[in-house]
Predict the 3D structure of the following.
Amino acid sequence: MATPGVWHFYLRRLHSLTGIFPMGVFLLEHFFGNAFATRGPEAYNRYVEFLLGMPYLSVLEIGVVFGPLIFHGIYGLLISAEGDVLRPTQGLGVRYHNAAYVLHRLTGIILLVFICYHVSNTRIQAVFFGQHVDYAYMANYFAPTYEKIVYTVGILSACYHFAHGLFNFAYKWGVTISPRAQQAMTYVSLAVFLGMSAVGLHILFAFK
């Protein structure tokens, strides 16, 4: 019979994996799809209609998005509460990774609140209240300054959490063992954060 320590080990690995697949992949797809807003209302609305017309959409949403998200979020809170000893000291230095460790967990908590807020104002509105979440709806939704601030914080949190999650995944799964590999992955994760943040904010301000 597996001991609690063994279960914890595998659950942590599963938690790390779900952060990349499917959650990270879904985040990239979500950015790509919403980027149609930069092409104008018609392009974005065609993308929305394509999504709504997908077969087994509810199954995909529950099995690929919300199920893994709930597990990753709840177990992430447990890991944050107990502290994570798997903190590499290579890369940009101990101080950077100590700060990144705290920021990664802080953005995770912010994301749990932000995702609930985002879903309640988009998908839940569509499913339970019949709201057609098209370009016009999103442009009106993002019009207030406070919404832009909320979504700027949410986008930056999502980008950082995913980007640093790539670093953690590579470290915990034994991909980046040497100090040199950790150094390189640090720069990769920072580049991913900056690139995705720029794209995410561009999409946000494309709705007008």
